[in-house]
Amino acid sequence: MPIFYSTTHSQKKQSAQASLVPVSLRSKSQKCSLILLGACIPSVALADLKPWLNVVSPEPQFSLDFGANYGVRSGEFRWHVGSAGSAPNILSELEYQGLEFSEYRLYARLSVNQGRLKHWQIDTQLSNASAERGTAIDSDYQQNHREGMYRRSTSDLGGSTSRSQNLSLGYRITPSSLVDWPVLQKFSESSQFTVIPSIGWVFSEQTLKMTQGTQTFATPERGEVLGRFTEALNSVYEASWNGAAFGMVGQIEGNQQTLRIGYQQIFARFRAVADWNLRTDFQHPRSFSHAANATASHLNLDYQWHVNERWAINLRWFHERWISNTGTDTVYLASGERVRSRLGEAGWRSTGYNLGMQMRF
User: Fold this and answer.
1) CA distance readout (Å), 219 to 88, 140, 225, 325
2) pTM score > 0.90 for this model?
């Protein structure tokens, strides 16, 4: 009989008998991770065997996010001028309607995570869009409030462009009272709500190119022929908005997704220069200019799905509206004389959405 069953080795016998008992019949409270040579070794947590796995990597002092998006936007531009202090209050009006753009957008964010500048961040973005279609309507009036129209023409806006730049400085605030907000818990079990007030600078520009002109209306006494222009129309109106922006962003960030809504109020200066190539009584390439103070608002909604720690898919929707106060319209005549009148109003509004990828360095 093998010594394994010897009565003189009772302790070994008991140990051996325990090893012969099927695992399924042992106490459920006893956890075994390895059966080797009839011995049951209780399981040990992996972190106990490898304590370095419990070490959390320190957050970097700086983090840089860079993204590239592509999308579409639609827009409308309008301006009108009138006689200074006399009728008509609207002498000429240009409406740029149905503008459809394809747009590229690049953006970057530098965040400070440690040190004296902790919670500060710098955001910058730029976009460039090209219009595939659009229609300009040029109307002239003899009486107040768009009455007594005596001429109207239309033209094509294909090839027009729009671009913008934005730079802002923000500070991240996490309200402790909202950590357990039920809405956040529905978004993600580990969601964090952040408010980011900011101050910055915004530039926006629209270059509106008018070609393929058509005379659609003219009073008989003017003797103008309806239909396509006999001369090639190639006029340009270049408008720019430039000013200070004050913004606020609300952000909910979970494990794999981030939802962000932002608003900016902008106080800007509006300027525009035009070249009316068919007007022989105007100078070229500077036929007339516009200048006025302006205000604007910009609203955006961003959703991000984090593929991993470095990459995220970004979906963005935005709406912006720019509007000027009453300003100055200066006409540069071919004779060298300058004639000033009143700029009634200029306005630009646009809505769009785009999709892209974001990478964290």
Assistant:
1) 17, 11, 10, 32
2) no
